[in-house]
Amino acid sequence: MRVFRILGIVAAVCLALVITVLGGMLLFGKAKDPALIPGFGDQFRGVDYSDLPPLEYYRARDGVELAYRTYLAPAAAGSQGVAVLLHGASDSSAGMHALAKTLAQEGITSYVPDLRGHGANQPHGDIRYPGQLDDDLIDLVRQMRPKHPQAQWTLVGFSAGGGFALRVGGGPQGDLFDRYLLLAPGLRYDAPTSRPLSASAARRFVAPYTGRLIAVSVLHGVGVHWFDGLPVLAFAVPVDSQRFTARYSTRLLENFSPHQDYLADIRNIHKPTVVLAGTNDEFILAEKIEPVFHSQRKDMAITILPGLNHLDLVTSPEAMRAIRAVMR
Q1: Phi and psi dihedrals of 106, rounded to 5?
Q2: CA dihedral over 163, 164, 167, 168, signed as positive or negative
Q3: Are 82 and 153 a contacting pair, CB within 8 Å?
Q4: Residue range 255-284: average pLDDT?
Q5: What's the whole-model pTM score?
Q6: What is the CATH number of domain 42-327?
C-alpha cells in the first residue's frame, strides 16, 4: 500500500508540474510584437483607392452582419462570370481592390469579403469556432448566387487567402465554385513551399508566440480547447488599424489555412485550378510550387512570374496581365 501511495504522490506532483509549465507557457510564452517595417506595403500605396466601393453587409448563419464589397462588371463588358476574392493574412477587402477592378474590366463581377476577424468585422483576430470562415463563405455565395444564376463562379485567394481557397476547393464544399485561382498561396508553415521563417522577410512581418502555440497544441492532444481564442501570432501592422489585423488566435490561424493534410486538399480539388506566384516572393519558395502541387495533381496549371514579389501578385501590372489571361 505504501508503494501505491508513493506512486500516487509522484503522479500528483508530475501532474502539478505539467499544469504549472503549460500555464506558464500560456501566460508568458509570447513574443515581442514585430516592429513596423519601413517600405513594407509600398505596393498598396501605389493603388488608387479613390473609387473603393462602400462596404455592404450580409447576414451569416449566426446572425452576425459581415462586411463585403461589390465590384460590378460594366454592362458594356458583357458579363462573363463572378469571382469571390479572398484577401491575405492581416489584410481586408481593400487589399484586393486593384485585382477586383481588373476583373471588372474583363466582365467579371467580384464580391470581396472582409473575412471574419478582419477589416470592418469586430472583434479582430478571432472567430467563434473552427471552420467558421468556411461557413461564412458558404453563406455569402448562397446569398449572392441568385443574382447570377447562369454565371461561372471562381474563388480567387491571395497568400493566406490562397491557402484558404485550397482548403475550400479540397474540402466537402469544393463544388461551391467552378474553378479556383491561387495567388502565392500559403500552405502550412512546414510545407516545402514556405521560406524558413528565420531566413526570410517573413520573420520581420510575423512573430509566432512559440511557447503558447506549443502549450495549445499539447492541450489539443488531450481534447482541451479552452485557450484557442488566445493570440498566438502577431503581425507588423499598427495595433489600432481599421484595415489590418494585428494578432490571430489559434482558431483563426488554423481556419485561415489549408487543412493539416494540405496535400490531400490538392488531390481532392476536382475543378480547374491555376496557381500563380512570383520568383522574388518573400514568403514562398516559388521553385517548390510545381513539385509540391504536381506531386498530387499533374493537371494543375502553374505559372511563375519572373521578378515579382509577394504583394506584386495583387497590385502589379504584370500580375494583372497574367490574371486576365487566366480568367478569360
Answers
A1: -90, 5
A2: negative
A3: yes
A4: 97
A5: 0.91
A6: 3.40.50.1820
